[in-house]
Amino acid sequence: MKIKSILLGAACAFAMAPAAMAERGSDGNVNIIYWQAPSIMNPYLSGGTKDLEAASLVVEPLARYDENGALIPWLVESVPTVENGGVSADLKTITWKIKPDLKWSDGSAFTSADAKFTWEYCTHPEGGCAQSEKYNNVISVDTPDALTVVVTFDVAKPFPYGPFVGSQAPILQAAQFADCMGAKAPECTEANFSPVGTGPFTVTEFRPNDVISLAANPNYRVADKPAFATVSFKGGGDATAAGRAVLETGEYDYAWNLQLAPDVLANMAAAGKGTVVSSFGTLVERIMVNQTDVSPALGDERGTVKHPHPFLTDINVRKSLSMAIDRALLVEIGYGAAGRVTCNVLPAPAIYASTANDACKVQDIAGANAVLEAAGWLKGADGIRAKDGVRLSMLFQTSTNAVRQDFQALIKQWWKEIGVETELRNINASVFFGGDPGSDDTFQKFFADVEMYANNFDGTDPESYMANWACEQAPSPENQWQGNNIPRFCSEEYDALVAKYAVTGDINERAEIAKAMNDMLMQEFVIIPLVDRGRVSAHANNLGGVILNTWDSELWNVADWHRVK
User: Fold this and answer.
1) Over 90: is that where the pLDDT of 228 sits?
2) Where are the alpha helices (DSSP H) in 352-477?
3) DSSP SS3 for 514
4) 491-540, pLDDT tens digit by residue?
5) Domain-located, residue 441
6) What is the mean pLDDT of residues 90-105?
7) Residue 287's CATH number
8) What Rg do the C-alpha atoms of the chain give, in angstroms?
9) φ, ψ dihedrals at 292, nearest 5°
10) 500 in any annotated domain
11) Cβ contacts of residue 383 below 8 Å, gap of 6+?
């Protein structure tokens, strides 16, 4: 099998022409606004995109994906393959060669020991790691010398690029996090807020859910980068204010995730101060359907697999919820050309996109009512269906955002038409997407019946992404609510497909397995996909070097950003 064949992707990106770089810090300050404010700078303790991207300014992986989805070396000399000898013929080991003379921002040497430590940190049996699926099948990380990392798997691994690859799996400094292992991980506030890194910037002040102040890393490996001396990273507010701050007022240089109605965005762009950039990747707006009972009366066992949901464990109910939704209308009002109807949680690359679930593209209120009626869920005098004393009454939560609240209102009405009562709740995005295990309002803890958000994955191969819904990935008190199987779905058949995918080399066979996993999730209706969303951000007209990347962190090349004179 040729490893190169599964490293290819495609994206449409827009960039300003780069200018010649001056000395480090010569362009002063750059202002970035993420209306979902970061709450932590440790990617292993949060699944929120806002936290992963903020952290990518500081901590870095060995390799990452470029704007075309191609895997490129970052802290290493080259990407290991079978052809160049970096991946063993039996596909059980991958050897990374670190670039010489790399330094952490504190001036100490970056070595292979830091990579080994990062693996031990994320896989500690007493801790919870939001990116644990990146290290599936790893049985050892060896360090024969300071610049060599040898990762060994317990199976032949045709795609060995999970560990230490992409913004979701960066390297942590062993010296800083040595006393933060296992259950102690969330307690290391200083390290989690201000990690030592190899990236272009370092944290000078971190105010959770508010502002991050950063300065150019004096030990960054490229002498004349970054061009900016400081970064002001503002969090909070809403997408409308963020868009205006770049496109209308020019107060900020870069605004992320402009989740705005098409006409609103167009009106802002007409002011002429900034440029909207967009590209499709794998970002899917979806509804997660909880398979567990979230009754507060269950105490510490609330939202755990010990207690099945009283009615969402009935596939007829889940199927009807999906059938009642008019996805085409959601796309029209919410995203316009930056959205596409999807019936899959895995919409891209094209080789992985299934057509087996396309029935969802057409709303079917009558059909949904018929399914519920046949399953014994009958309407009462109030129009709400019930069975054996259990009413179809749900709490539907999401983050605070105008588009999402519009979606909630429409979906509530459609569900009312099939006899389902829905209470709506929206939560501040900085909290909802935060990783605080003590908060009851995070999307991971999921103390609601259904919830809506969008997610995607690094790169173009979905092996780690599809492993998110393995049984062991269910969030729980034992893993500090850091698992990625948000619906708490569990299937031995699905887990078997995860294992099979991990050892399959042929690209076409891998695609068929990925489709089968996607189809199982879709046909079990534990995930209800809504919109294949394009990434939409904006930058000031005088900010150069911006290359939108949908396959990695949007801030992946911030070291190349500069002020256009």
Assistant:
1) yes
2) 365-374, 402-416, 429-432, 463-466
3) helix
4) 999 999 999 999 999 999 999 999 999 999 999 999 999 999 999 999 99
5) yes
6) 98
7) 3.10.105.10
8) 23
9) -120, 160
10) no
11) 416, 419
CA-to-CA distance for 118 and 138, rounded, in angstroms? 12
pLDDT band of 437, cuts 50, 70, 90: confident
d(CA 332, CA 413): 17
Average pLDDT estimate for 211-217: 98
Burial class (CB in 10 A: 0-12, 13-18, 19+), 373: middle
Which residue type is seen at 425?
R
Cα–Cα distance for residue pair 482/128, rounded to 1 Å: 5
Angle, in degrees to the nearest 10, between helices 492-503 and 507-524: 160
Q: Are 467 and 503 in contact (CB under 8 A)?
A: no
140: tokens are 């050892």
Q: Residue 439: CB partners within 8 Å, gap ≥ 6?
A: 431, 445
Angle, helices 262-269 vs 239-247, to 10°: value is 20
- Residue whose pair of structure tokens reads 């063993």 in the numeric block: 88
Among candidate residues 61, 84, 73, 74, the one with its CA nearest the CA of residue 134: 61
- Rounded average pLDDT over 375-393: 97
Distance of CA 254 to the CA centre of its chain: 20
Q: Is 339 inside any structural domain? A: yes
- The upper half-sphere exposure of residue 80, i.e. CA atoms within 13 Å in the direction of its Cβ, equals 29
Sign (positive or negative) of CA dihedral 139, 118, 64, 286: positive
pTM value? Answer: 0.89
Distance in angstroms (rounded) separating the CA atoms of residues 53 and 212? 12
Yes or no: say if 131 and 124 are a contact pair by the CB < 8 Å rule: no
Query: Nearest 5 degrees, angle CA 187-CA 468-CA 293?
Result: 75
Using the predicted structure, report yes or no on whether residue 12 has a pLDDT greater than 60.
no
Domain count, the chain: 1
Query: Would you state the pLDDT for residue 16?
Result: 36
DSSP reduced 3-state for 170: coil
Asked if residue 232 belongs to a domain, the reply is no
Task: Annotate 211-231 with b (16+ C-beta within 10 A) or e (fewer).
Answer: ebebbbbebbbeeebbbbbbb
**Average pLDDT of the chain?**
94
Helices 402-416, 239-247: crossing angle, 10 deg rounding: 150
Amino acid at 207: R
How far, in Å, CA of 92 to CA of 98, rounded? 20
- Most distant CA pair in the chain, distance: 74
Instruction: Please list the alpha-helical segments (H only) found in 41-153.
Output: 49-55, 112-122
Closest to 242 measured CA to CA, from 451, 90, 355, 402: 402
Domain span including residue 416: 280-458+527-534
**How far apart are the C-alpha atoms of 550 and 537, rounded to whole Å?**
11
Q: Of 135, 138, 227, 239, whose CA–CA distance to 544 is shortest?
A: 227
Q: Report d(CA 498, CA 475) in Å as an integer.
A: 18
